[in-house]
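Protocol check, entry for the methods section draft. Step 1: assemble the input record (protein sequence plus ligand SMILES). Step 2: submit for complex structure prediction. Step 3: store the structure tokens unaltered in the notebook. Ligand used here: zinc ion. Step 1 record:
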Amino acid sequence: MGTEEEYVPGFGTHVEGSGIYATLVGEKVVDQDRKVSIKPAALVPALMGRGSIVVGVIDEIFEPVALVRVADIKGGERRRTHNEYYCVLHASRVRNGFVKTIRTEVRIGDIIRAIVDDVDNGETYLSTKGNEYGVIRAFCSRCRHGMDQKGSRVVCPKCGSAETRKIAEGYGSA
Ligand SMILES: [Zn+2]
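Step 3, stored output:
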């Protein structure tokens, strides 16, 4: 992050030799006294409450849950952050009605629009119930190419693969 000549070590840092290193994952912050500290990524979800709208990328899927990497928050007022953090989308919160496997609804790499349903114990739970929420950009699970909406499905223009998604209204325009 820098040296002791440049900065005073602060929260979330440690000194090794003459260098200052981050001990936490988060955003580097330097104050007017040249104190360098880390604003932990885990604190960011405190900005979000029930009803905040987020756009994120499906990063991992562990049935019945998808981990969503969120980098952009739209709430009552628009907020942006350069931090990234993870929210949880559970199969039961994908759509109204039973979802057997979350892979029929979202795939790794897809971009989704979702609403914060609950914040509990440091975890942020998203919901994509409602027409306006769901996948706004799908990527082919075979060849990773962007997919086009065809009715209630998405089709890959490159390899022809047809897949299912929980598609948001305005798919592809966001
Ligand atoms: Zn494809």
